[in-house]
Each structure stands twice: as structure tokens, then as C-alpha cells.
Amino acid sequence: MRATLVDATGLLVCLDFDGTLAPIVDDPDAAVPTESNQRAVTALAETPGVTTAVVSGRALTNVRERIDGPTIYAGNHGLELARNGSVAVHPVARKRATRVERLCAMLETVLASVPNCRVENKRLTGTVHLRSVPAAAETTVRRITHDLVDRFGGDALEISTGKRILEIGPDIPWGKGDAVELIAADEPPGTAVVYIGDDVTDESAFRAVEPDGIGIRVGDDAPSSASYRVASPADVASVLSWLETIQNERGERVR
Ligand SMILES: O=P(O)(O)OC[C@H]1O[C@H](O[C@H]2O[C@H](CO)[C@@H](O)[C@H](O)[C@H]2O)[C@H](O)[C@@H](O)[C@@H]1O
To answer: In the 8-state DSSP scheme, what is residue 149?
Structure first.
């Protein structure tokens, strides 16, 4: 890993948010980065020769409020991308947003009586949260969600999964990996790309960066295309600080 970074001309570090910078918590509104992750992201973002990006399943506006520092933010699993002062939205996702929002509203109504069943309307995608739903109600929530998406989403929408969530989004071949490729294409040739994430939607990003770049999966709960692992969000800050040190050493050598 060190050789890849030392031989590179620059460094692009892409980071997932929930489960990577912020520990997983029951209430999605309560998720915040650990203090050491926030500090390490800020320091890395200020390091010459480093570009930092956060690539999240959250809505762009939501994730931007939660972590300071990065120059680039991608929300809704890469369907919206803020960089160079403007926001690009996937055109098909934009067209299907009304349908997603209607479905979220319907699910909110239909699932209102299920204790702690939260529906997160993220405009381009929607999330049904199962984490705090009583075990006895989970099958019903899954069934209702699938039925409504089949009925009102047709071929336009699909359901994917994440950590104790059902994600409703446009049925298009676009994910975090595509967003990371777009971001990386703007970097100078020879830039090393690092991606750190913890969940199933991060796998396309690991595949996008490996084998030339470096994928780091947080947690050991599932197989991964990433070549490296750290145990938890608490370990991410030390990786980021190490990347900063390597980049500073490399910078001193080329100056
Ligand atoms: O790509 P990410 O930045 O990791 O976003 C993925 C989803 O993260 C959030 O849900 C997850 O974190 C919650 C807070 O810790 C947790 O309660 C939930 O069970 C997790 O799945 C977020 O709320 C979703 O919108 C994101 O898609």
C-alpha cells in the first residue's frame, strides 16, 4: 500500500459517511462523525496534493451538514455530485424523483402504525429504516415496501439493501463506483485513489478503485472487493492521519 502512495503524483481520498466516518446509531438524524475522524478529514483536506470527497447514500444536503472539510460531496449513492461550485444530478434520477417522493409519502402513511419505522425521503432515493422496528413487524414492513414499489414503481424504481435498511431508487446502472470514477477522472494522471467504506453500496466503489488504487472496508461483517480492512469507524482516523503523513513526506521529497 505504501509503495502505491509513495509512487503516486497525488492522492484522492473518497470516504463513505455512515459506518465509516460516523458510527452506526439507531436514529439516522443522530449520526455524527467521531471527533477524531472529523479532525483527520479536515487535516487531510488541507494537505497539499490531496483531494478529499465524501460519497454517501444520504441526500447531498444532509451529508454536507454532517462533515466539514472535503472539497467534493456525492449524495444519494452518487446520483448527485457537488464539485467545482456546481451540483450535477443524474438526469434519469431527476426525472424519477417525483415518483420516489410519492412512494415515500405513501410508505410513511401505510407504515405509520409500525413502531419506530422511519421513512427517509431523500428526493432521488428513499430509505425505509428497519433498525428499530420490532422483530415481529419486520417481515410486514418488508412485504409492504416491496408491494408498493412493485405497484407504483414499475420498471422505473428498484429496491436495494444496506445496513438494516431498504433503499428505493431509480432502476439504473449507476452507483458510488460511477461517481468515484467521475471524480477520479478530474485528477492529474498518476494520482492514487483510496476509497474507505463499510456497506454493500461501497463495493462498486472498491471495484472502481482496485487494483491500481486502494479499497479499505470498515468492519469484517461481509466479504469485500476491498484489499484492506479496518475494524470500525474508530480506526479510520489513524488511516487518514497515516495518509496525510505519507503525502507530506512525498511532498517534501518532490519540493
Ligand atoms: O453511504 P452511507 O453514507 O453509509 O449512507 C448509507 C445509509 O446511511 C444511513 O443509514 C445507516 O446509518 C444510520 C445511522 O447510523 C442507521 O440507523 C441505519 O440503520 C444505517 O443503514 C442513512 O440514514 C441512509 O439514508 C443511507 O442510505
So the answer is: H
